[in-house]
Write a structure and sequence with these properties.
alpha+beta; five-stranded antiparallel β-sheet; 10 helices; 10 strands; globular
């Protein structure tokens, strides 16, 4: 939903800025503006009118209450130590602080690679759902076998292995394979299950959705340890990579449905949590300065300024309800665009001022070229005359 609002606001700001700038630059920009408007409508209307977008938008009021409570909890974490109010707790520290402050009802699941005398294994703890995923090459209506070497230290528990077609965060046509702990066994257990893939791997219309295997501790009593996991086709082909975790978590990606334990989902609160009041003030001053420069650029007819202002606006609107700066790549892109906007606009403004001054003085680029041509011709004539006089002198 934040993405929809960001797209809409970025489009409106960009088109409005171009309309203002078009009065001061070449008229052909009007045609570009009209084409951009049509393209924006062609992209935006189908997205916003779709069933998925309508369903997400209908949940906005309920989700806002959840977000407000979540932001209040994040701000409460900054009360200690007192220095966090000024300089924050640092980017990347929020999940650790959330885990320390979460009560039993909000405790997120965790994962870790552990080295012990019996070797290396993966440990999954219970809590709010967390999955370790790996893409697998599954064909529909084929036989497969999963073999797991697992241990449940508390003697009870359950390990689930869902196989789903994935479309970004959303799962389709899942098969949930469950491996409960064997009664009376507190050591390592060899768990095996044969299954038919049914429609998994068919993928629907092109582009086909990939199939991902997930590891999930679906028990409530304690951790589940996994030493190895194998997924084999009927001909014995191994489909998983690094199934013994000898290379750590290579080829495995963690995914969670409960991302409030990982993200604050509000750019201003996120900046305050990580960098305190000083960081929030610095970002505010930076944006204020960039806005002043971009405004001058738009009023001066710079065609780059509306586009850059639209990009920054879209990012900030998404940040009202989303985590936009807790990723290093997103942060770098945001600050790069802000600084580039100021530099590009100011350079373009100075160039246009210089051209305007020459035009007002009646000395255009064409005049300059003609003057340079006349000067060169005069020099050539003088040189030719001098050479001719020299040749005509008697010896």
């Amino acid at each position: 939903r934040g993405g929809y609002a960001g797209l809409a606001m970025a489009t409106v700001v960009t088109l409005l800025g171009l309309a203002i700038a078009a009065k001061r630059i070449e008229r052909r920009l009007g045609r570009t503006l009209a084409i951009a408007s049509v393209l924006a409508l062609a992209v935006g209307l189908p997205v916003l009118s779709g069933d998925f977008a309508q369903q997400r938008l209908s949940q906005s009021a309920r989700d806002l209450d959840i977000r407000l409570d979540h932001w209040a909890n994040a701000l409460e974490m900054t009360q200690h130590p007192p220095s966090a109010l000024v300089i924050g707790k640092g980017f990347g520290s929020y999940p650790r602080n959330y885990l320390a402050a979460a009560g039993p009802a909000r405790l997120p699941a965790t994962f870790a690679i552990i080295e012990q005398s019996e070797g290396r294994f993966l440990r999954l703890t219970p809590g709010r759902p967390l999955y370790l995923d790996q893409a697998v090459d599954i064909a529909p209506h084929e036989a497969y076998t999963i073999a797991i070497e697992a241990r449940f230290p508390f003697g009870k528990g359950e390990l689930s292995v869902p196989l789903c077609e994935k479309d970004l965060l959303y799962s389709f046509d899942c098969q949930w394979l469950r491996f409960p702990a064997s009664d009376g066994v507190d050591g390592w257990q060899h768990l095996t299950l044969r299954f038919n893939s049914q429609n998994l791997g068919a993928g629907g219309a092109w582009p086909h959705r990939p199939v991902r295997l997930s590891l999930y501790n679906s028990g409530i009593l304690g951790p589940a340890d996994i030493a190895t996991i194998r997924l084999r086709a009927a001909d014995g082909t191994e489909l998983l990579q690094n199934g013994d975790f000898s290379r750590g978590l290579d080829h495995w990606l963690y995914v969670t449905d409960q991302d409030l334990a990982w993200h604050i989902h509000q750019q201003a609160v996120e900046t305050y949590f990580a960098q305190g009041l000083l960081g929030l003030l610095a970002v505010t001053l930076l944006l204020f300065g960039a806005l002043r420069v971009l405004r001058r650029g738009i009023m001066g007819g710079c065609s780059h300024s509306p586009i850059l202002l639209g990009a920054i606006t879209g990012f900030l609107v998404v940040g009202l309800l989303g985590s936009t700066v807790d990723s290093a790549r997103n942060s770098m892109l945001f600050y790069f665009v802000v600084f580039a906007a100021a530099l590009i606009t100011e350079k373009g403004r100075r160039h246009r001022v210089s051209i305007g001054r020459r035009r007002r003085s009646g000395y255009s680029g064409t005049d300059a070229a003609a003057s340079r041509s006349a000067t060169s011709s005069a020099r050539a004539a003088v040189t030719a005359s001098s050479n001719s006089a020299t040749r005509s002198k008697p010896a």
